[in-house]
């Protein structure tokens, strides 16, 4: 049995702790919050276990739309000007991944991870409750060009085992009657029957209980990591506001904050935040039972228990999250337009914002680092909830 520290108690840190504990390691998790998934992106995300929709962000179509984003003409995606050299270095690597060949390669690599993750969730859902549901997912497309691009990619993904089907608006409404009032606004849809949904915050709370009761995992909450100490190229200690933890092995799972802490040990991680937003309102009987994504507006709708989660939008440039009332207004207007009766929009809106830890190629960073004993499991971007079971299992196998 080896002692391993896990830095971060979001979905990635919690599943890493589980995968390591299952292999018999003595695990301690450190997080600045007072409970798991309290401060990071795993609190109020879109709830989608999006196993088939793994499309990388850097793509030829994103590049074609750059002038529109730079001029602020797209309410879904905002580029916020920043002078940070790190952002420009990240952006150059991002653009280098935007060719058709790179886009397809990145999408397929993430698809393989997502399919592994699905098996992991199926097994763990027998032990941990997280409002796990087989919802299927419908992506709506409002332009024929976007639909054509999707048809080609779907054929490729089908070859790798992802089951997806193009639907006409009428077929989409037949599958999801809640879309009836919106049928005129999309030209086609993509149906992913095996996609699922679940509450990542609830997952972390119940996994926390299981890890403590059945696996003896220790938790150090309210503990802020300031830096890492190394000696002769090896990890030596984690320096926190509660003192130093001497250690030989640790996993970096600090989401968007991984880059800053890794830097203290001489490691540069290409992770840049992309801010998103969510609202959570009481669901009505008219709420969709499938997960729905309006791809043009970058907004997802998902029922979690008796609530409707409306999440999305993408703002890139800022290093920190800003609470922006206009972005929540955009989400609310989109919800009222697509599903006017699906939620009680006059109730408390439970507005939340979080940072997606984006890498230039949309692939998470999983493996050993150049510092002996320091392992990386970070940079999960827009799909950390979907991918966490697979990246945790892969990293635990490497540590073993
Ligand atoms: C609006 C939005 C919608 C999304 N929708 C989906 C979706 O539908 N499906 C999907 O798969 N993914 C989705 N994502 C992405 C997903 O939420 C993230 O990829 C995932 O939560 C990242 O998990 P993580 O554990 O790496 O990071 P986090 O959840 O951010 O966890 C990092 C942890 O590190 C801790 N921490 C940070 N700094 C320190 C420090 N110095 N010391 C100690 N602890 C520290 C934090 O407290 C936090 O608990 C969405 C994200 C957003 C923002």
General description of the model:
This protein has 400 residues and is an alpha/beta fold. The chain has helices spanning 11-22, 60-64, 66-70, 85-96, 100-124, 144-159, 169-175, 200-215, 258-263, 325-338, 384-399; strands at residues 3-7, 26-30, 48-49, 77-79, 137-141, 165-167, 188-192, 196-197, 218-220, 225-231, 234-240, 243-246, 250-252, 272-282, 291-294, 299-304, 307-316, 352-358, 365-368, 374-378. The strands form four sheets. Strands 4, 5, 6, 7, 14, 15, 16, 17 and 18 form a nine-stranded mixed β-sheet that branches. A six-stranded mixed β-sheet has the order 9-2-1-13-20-19, covered by helices on one side. It has a three-stranded antiparallel β-sheet with strand order 10-11-12. Helix 1 (11-22) runs parallel beside helix 11 (384-399) and helix 5 crosses helix 11. The longest helix has 25 residues, at 100-124. The site of flavin-adenine dinucleotide has 43 residues, from helix 1, strand 14, strand 18 and helix 11. Its EC number is 1.4.99.1. Keywords: Oxidoreductase. One of its GO terms (molecular function) is D-amino-acid dehydrogenase activity. It comes from Rhizobium mesoamericanum STM3625.
Number of strands: 20
Whole-number count of domains: 1
Bound molecules: flavin-adenine dinucleotide
Name the overall outline. globular
Specify the CATH class: Alpha Beta
Number of helices: 11
Question: Percent range for helical residues?
Answer: 25-40%
What is the CATH topology? FAD/NAD(P)-binding domain
Mean pLDDT: 96
> How much of the sequence is in beta strands?
25-35%
CATH architectural label: 3-Layer(bba) Sandwich
Sequence stretches where pLDDT stays below 50 over 5 or more residues: none
Decide which structural class fits the backbone: alpha/beta
Family: Belongs to the DadA oxidoreductase family.
EC number: 1.4.99.1
Domain FAD dependent oxidoreductase: 4-397
Pfam families: DAO (PF01266)
